[in-house]
Amino acid sequence: MKLLFLGDVMGRAGRSALAEHLPRLKADWGLDFVVINGENATSGAGLSGAHAKALLEAGADCITLGDHAFDQKDMLQFIETEPRILRPLNFAKGAPGRGARVFEVPGGARILVAQVLGQVFMKRPFDDPFSAIEAVMRTTTLGGSVQAALVDMHCEATSEKMGMGHFCDGKVSVVVGTHTHVPTGDAQILPGGTAFQTDAGMCGDYNSVIGMDPAEPLRRFVTGMAKGRFSPAAGPATLSGLYVETDPQTGKAIRVEMVRQGGRLQAAGL
Ligand SMILES: [Fe+2]
Ligand SMILES: [Fe+2]
Protein backbone atom coordinates (compact mmCIF):
# COMPACT_ATOMS: atom_id res chain seq x y z
CA MET A 1 0.00 0.00 0.00
CA LYS A 2 1.25 3.51 -0.79
CA LEU A 3 0.62 5.87 2.11
CA LEU A 4 1.18 9.58 2.57
CA PHE A 5 1.11 11.28 5.94
CA LEU A 6 1.26 15.08 6.13
CA GLY A 7 1.98 16.99 9.35
CA ASP A 8 0.03 19.76 11.07
CA VAL A 9 -1.74 21.97 8.50
CA MET A 10 -1.15 25.56 9.57
CA GLY A 11 -3.82 28.15 8.73
CA ARG A 12 -4.75 29.42 5.32
CA ALA A 13 -1.25 28.96 3.89
CA GLY A 14 -1.30 25.25 4.75
CA ARG A 15 -4.84 24.74 3.44
CA SER A 16 -4.02 26.49 0.16
CA ALA A 17 -0.87 24.43 -0.36
CA LEU A 18 -2.81 21.23 0.23
CA ALA A 19 -5.47 22.19 -2.28
CA GLU A 20 -2.73 23.11 -4.75
CA HIS A 21 -0.43 20.08 -4.42
CA LEU A 22 -2.30 17.11 -2.97
CA PRO A 23 -4.47 16.14 -5.97
CA ARG A 24 -1.33 16.01 -8.16
CA LEU A 25 0.66 14.00 -5.58
CA LYS A 26 -2.18 11.49 -5.22
CA ALA A 27 -2.23 10.91 -8.96
CA ASP A 28 1.53 11.05 -9.65
CA TRP A 29 2.51 8.82 -6.74
CA GLY A 30 -0.50 6.47 -7.03
CA LEU A 31 -1.35 6.95 -3.37
CA ASP A 32 -3.78 4.49 -1.80
CA PHE A 33 -4.42 6.40 1.43
CA VAL A 34 -3.64 9.91 2.73
CA VAL A 35 -3.69 10.94 6.39
CA ILE A 36 -3.35 14.61 7.33
CA ASN A 37 -2.97 16.21 10.74
CA GLY A 38 -5.44 19.11 10.76
CA GLU A 39 -5.20 20.45 14.33
CA ASN A 40 -3.99 23.92 13.30
CA ALA A 41 -5.80 24.36 9.99
CA THR A 42 -8.24 27.03 11.22
CA SER A 43 -6.37 30.22 12.18
CA GLY A 44 -3.60 28.06 13.65
CA ALA A 45 -5.84 26.72 16.42
CA GLY A 46 -8.15 23.78 15.84
CA LEU A 47 -10.19 22.73 12.81
CA SER A 48 -13.64 24.01 11.85
CA GLY A 49 -16.16 21.80 10.11
CA ALA A 50 -15.92 23.92 6.96
CA HIS A 51 -12.15 23.61 6.83
CA ALA A 52 -12.34 19.88 7.57
CA LYS A 53 -14.56 19.52 4.49
CA ALA A 54 -12.00 21.47 2.43
CA LEU A 55 -9.15 19.17 3.55
CA LEU A 56 -11.21 16.08 2.73
CA GLU A 57 -12.09 17.53 -0.67
CA ALA A 58 -8.41 18.24 -1.34
CA GLY A 59 -7.75 14.49 -0.96
CA ALA A 60 -7.35 13.57 2.70
CA ASP A 61 -8.81 10.13 3.44
CA CYS A 62 -8.44 10.67 7.19
CA ILE A 63 -7.74 13.75 9.34
CA THR A 64 -6.10 13.46 12.75
CA LEU A 65 -6.23 16.25 15.34
CA GLY A 66 -4.20 16.76 18.54
CA ASP A 67 -4.15 18.85 21.71
CA HIS A 68 -5.96 21.60 19.72
CA ALA A 69 -8.69 19.16 18.63
CA PHE A 70 -11.63 21.19 19.93
CA ASP A 71 -10.29 24.76 19.85
CA GLN A 72 -12.94 25.39 17.19
CA LYS A 73 -16.09 24.60 19.12
CA ASP A 74 -18.10 23.38 16.13
CA MET A 75 -15.76 20.37 15.98
CA LEU A 76 -17.41 19.06 19.18
CA GLN A 77 -20.50 18.28 17.07
CA PHE A 78 -18.92 17.94 13.64
CA ILE A 79 -16.62 15.07 14.64
CA GLU A 80 -19.68 12.94 15.46
CA THR A 81 -20.95 13.39 11.89
CA GLU A 82 -17.65 12.77 10.06
CA PRO A 83 -16.00 9.38 10.75
CA ARG A 84 -12.91 10.34 8.74
CA ILE A 85 -11.82 12.69 11.55
CA LEU A 86 -9.99 11.23 14.56
CA ARG A 87 -9.08 12.97 17.82
CA PRO A 88 -6.42 11.56 20.18
CA LEU A 89 -7.44 8.31 21.93
CA ASN A 90 -6.46 9.78 25.30
CA PHE A 91 -7.72 13.38 24.81
CA ALA A 92 -10.28 13.22 27.65
CA LYS A 93 -12.73 10.77 29.13
CA GLY A 94 -15.73 12.69 27.80
CA ALA A 95 -14.37 13.71 24.41
CA PRO A 96 -16.69 13.23 21.44
CA GLY A 97 -15.57 11.28 18.39
CA ARG A 98 -13.06 8.46 18.24
CA GLY A 99 -9.30 8.04 18.46
CA ALA A 100 -8.89 5.05 16.17
CA ARG A 101 -10.74 3.52 13.24
CA VAL A 102 -10.27 0.91 10.54
CA PHE A 103 -10.78 2.38 7.06
CA GLU A 104 -11.57 0.51 3.85
CA VAL A 105 -9.10 1.37 1.12
CA PRO A 106 -10.31 1.28 -2.52
CA GLY A 107 -9.37 -2.20 -3.78
CA GLY A 108 -10.48 -3.96 -0.60
CA ALA A 109 -7.57 -3.52 1.82
CA ARG A 110 -8.06 -2.20 5.34
CA ILE A 111 -5.96 0.29 7.30
CA LEU A 112 -6.05 1.10 11.01
CA VAL A 113 -5.36 4.75 11.90
CA ALA A 114 -4.92 5.84 15.52
CA GLN A 115 -3.70 8.95 17.31
CA VAL A 116 -2.39 9.42 20.83
CA LEU A 117 -1.12 12.36 22.88
CA GLY A 118 2.15 12.17 24.80
CA GLN A 119 2.64 13.18 28.42
CA VAL A 120 6.07 14.86 28.52
CA PHE A 121 6.08 18.71 28.51
CA MET A 122 2.42 18.93 27.47
CA LYS A 123 0.23 21.77 28.79
CA ARG A 124 -2.17 19.50 30.63
CA PRO A 125 -1.90 15.89 31.81
CA PHE A 126 -3.16 13.15 29.52
CA ASP A 127 -3.64 9.44 30.26
CA ASP A 128 -0.88 6.98 29.40
CA PRO A 129 -0.61 6.80 25.58
CA PHE A 130 1.22 3.46 25.61
CA SER A 131 -1.58 1.50 27.24
CA ALA A 132 -4.11 3.36 25.05
CA ILE A 133 -2.37 2.32 21.83
CA GLU A 134 -1.74 -1.19 23.11
CA ALA A 135 -5.47 -1.68 23.67
CA VAL A 136 -6.18 -0.61 20.07
CA MET A 137 -3.42 -2.78 18.60
CA ARG A 138 -4.94 -5.78 20.39
CA THR A 139 -8.14 -5.37 18.34
CA THR A 140 -6.40 -5.77 14.97
CA THR A 141 -3.61 -7.89 13.46
CA LEU A 142 -1.17 -6.39 10.98
CA GLY A 143 -1.07 -8.65 7.92
CA GLY A 144 -4.31 -10.28 9.13
CA SER A 145 -7.41 -8.22 9.87
CA VAL A 146 -5.69 -5.06 8.55
CA GLN A 147 -3.16 -4.69 5.74
CA ALA A 148 -1.63 -1.48 7.15
CA ALA A 149 -1.69 0.52 10.37
CA LEU A 150 -0.60 4.08 11.12
CA VAL A 151 -0.08 5.75 14.51
CA ASP A 152 0.14 9.55 14.86
CA MET A 153 2.08 10.25 18.08
CA HIS A 154 1.24 13.84 18.97
CA CYS A 155 3.61 15.25 21.56
CA GLU A 156 6.43 17.61 22.43
CA ALA A 157 9.32 15.35 23.40
CA THR A 158 11.42 13.60 20.77
CA SER A 159 12.27 10.89 23.29
CA GLU A 160 8.63 10.01 23.87
CA LYS A 161 7.98 9.85 20.13
CA MET A 162 10.93 7.52 19.60
CA GLY A 163 9.76 5.44 22.54
CA MET A 164 6.37 5.03 20.85
CA GLY A 165 8.08 4.00 17.62
CA HIS A 166 9.90 1.17 19.36
CA PHE A 167 6.84 0.23 21.42
CA CYS A 168 4.83 -0.30 18.21
CA ASP A 169 7.68 -1.71 16.10
CA GLY A 170 6.52 -4.73 14.12
CA LYS A 171 2.87 -4.23 15.14
CA VAL A 172 2.04 -1.27 12.88
CA SER A 173 3.29 -0.03 9.49
CA VAL A 174 4.06 3.56 10.52
CA VAL A 175 4.58 5.61 13.66
CA VAL A 176 4.97 9.31 12.90
CA GLY A 177 5.29 12.22 15.28
CA THR A 178 3.37 15.49 15.05
CA HIS A 179 2.86 18.67 17.14
CA THR A 180 6.32 20.29 17.05
CA HIS A 181 5.91 21.51 13.44
CA VAL A 182 9.58 21.10 12.44
CA PRO A 183 10.46 18.00 10.40
CA THR A 184 13.17 15.76 11.80
CA GLY A 185 15.65 14.10 9.45
CA ASP A 186 15.45 10.58 10.86
CA ALA A 187 13.03 8.77 8.54
CA GLN A 188 13.83 5.06 8.89
CA ILE A 189 12.40 1.57 9.07
CA LEU A 190 12.84 0.20 12.60
CA PRO A 191 14.14 -3.39 13.03
CA GLY A 192 10.65 -4.92 13.31
CA GLY A 193 9.45 -3.27 10.08
CA THR A 194 7.73 -0.08 11.29
CA ALA A 195 8.44 3.14 9.35
CA PHE A 196 9.25 5.98 11.70
CA GLN A 197 10.01 9.70 11.73
CA THR A 198 10.19 11.64 14.99
CA ASP A 199 8.25 14.61 13.56
CA ALA A 200 6.53 14.96 10.20
CA GLY A 201 6.88 18.75 10.23
CA MET A 202 4.01 21.06 9.35
CA CYS A 203 2.21 22.02 6.19
CA GLY A 204 2.77 25.73 6.62
CA ASP A 205 4.95 28.75 5.91
CA TYR A 206 8.45 28.03 7.27
CA ASN A 207 9.28 31.76 7.32
CA SER A 208 7.73 31.74 10.79
CA VAL A 209 8.02 30.51 14.36
CA ILE A 210 6.48 27.03 14.05
CA GLY A 211 3.93 28.40 11.60
CA MET A 212 3.11 31.69 13.30
CA ASP A 213 4.11 35.12 12.02
CA PRO A 214 7.38 35.75 13.94
CA ALA A 215 6.50 39.23 15.33
CA GLU A 216 4.42 38.24 18.37
CA PRO A 217 6.39 35.12 19.37
CA LEU A 218 9.61 37.14 19.16
CA ARG A 219 8.13 39.96 21.24
CA ARG A 220 7.17 37.45 23.94
CA PHE A 221 10.59 35.77 23.90
CA VAL A 222 12.51 39.05 23.98
CA THR A 223 10.36 41.17 26.30
CA GLY A 224 8.52 38.50 28.29
CA MET A 225 5.27 40.34 27.50
CA ALA A 226 2.37 39.49 25.21
CA LYS A 227 0.97 42.35 23.15
CA GLY A 228 -1.11 40.81 20.44
CA ARG A 229 -2.41 37.47 19.26
CA PHE A 230 -0.51 34.87 17.35
CA SER A 231 -1.43 34.82 13.67
CA PRO A 232 -0.40 32.16 11.15
CA ALA A 233 2.35 33.20 8.74
CA ALA A 234 0.83 33.81 5.32
CA GLY A 235 3.63 33.05 2.85
CA PRO A 236 3.78 29.99 0.61
CA ALA A 237 3.57 26.75 2.61
CA THR A 238 5.67 23.61 2.33
CA LEU A 239 3.85 20.30 2.56
CA SER A 240 5.89 18.17 4.98
CA GLY A 241 5.46 14.55 5.90
CA LEU A 242 6.25 10.98 5.15
CA TYR A 243 5.71 8.62 2.21
CA VAL A 244 5.55 4.94 3.12
CA GLU A 245 5.13 1.79 1.05
CA THR A 246 3.98 -1.33 2.84
CA ASP A 247 4.18 -5.00 1.95
CA PRO A 248 0.68 -6.12 0.90
CA GLN A 249 0.99 -9.42 2.81
CA THR A 250 2.73 -8.48 6.06
CA GLY A 251 1.75 -4.80 6.31
CA LYS A 252 5.30 -3.90 7.28
CA ALA A 253 7.08 -0.93 5.72
CA ILE A 254 9.34 -1.63 2.75
CA ARG A 255 10.13 1.99 1.85
CA VAL A 256 10.03 5.31 3.67
CA GLU A 257 10.82 8.77 2.30
CA MET A 258 10.63 12.20 3.87
CA VAL A 259 8.30 14.48 1.86
CA ARG A 260 8.68 18.22 1.27
CA GLN A 261 6.69 19.90 -1.48
CA GLY A 262 6.44 23.60 -2.35
CA GLY A 263 7.29 26.67 -0.30
CA ARG A 264 10.69 27.38 1.23
CA LEU A 265 11.98 23.94 2.22
CA GLN A 266 13.97 22.25 -0.47
CA ALA A 267 13.89 18.50 -0.99
CA ALA A 268 14.36 15.90 -3.65
CA GLY A 269 11.07 14.73 -5.14
CA LEU A 270 10.17 11.07 -5.18
FE1 LIG B 1 -0.42 20.00 18.90
FE1 LIG C 1 0.25 21.43 15.75
Keywords for this structure?
270 residues; Purple Acid Phosphatase, chain A, domain 2; 6 helices; globular; binds fe (ii) ion
Structure write-up:
The protein is an alpha/beta fold and 270 residues long. It has a single domain (2-265), classed as Metallo-dependent phosphatases (Purple Acid Phosphatase, chain A, domain 2), CATH 3.60.21.10. The chain contains 6 helices and 12 strands. A 6-stranded mixed β-sheet has the order 4-3-2-1-11-12. The longest helix has 19 residues, at 11-29. The protein starts with a strand and ends in a 9-residue tail after the last strand. The model has no long low-confidence stretch (mean pLDDT 96). The chain binds fe (ii) ion (2 copies). One fe (ii) ion (FE2) binds at residues 39, 66-68, 154, 179.
Please describe the topology of this protein.
Layout: E1 2-6, H1 11-29, E2 33-37, H2 49-58, E3 62-64, H3 75-81, E4 85-86, E5 100-104, E6 110-117, H4 129-137, E7 148-154, H5 158-168, E8 174-178, E9 188-189, E10 195-197, H6 215-223, E11 239-246, E12 253-261
Parallel strand pairs: 1-2, 2-3, 3-4, 6-7, 7-8, 8-10
Antiparallel strand pairs: 1-11, 5-6, 9-10, 11-12
Helix pairs in contact: 1-2
Bound molecules: fe (ii) ion (FE2) (2 copies).
One fe (ii) ion is lined by residues 39, 66-68, 154, 179.
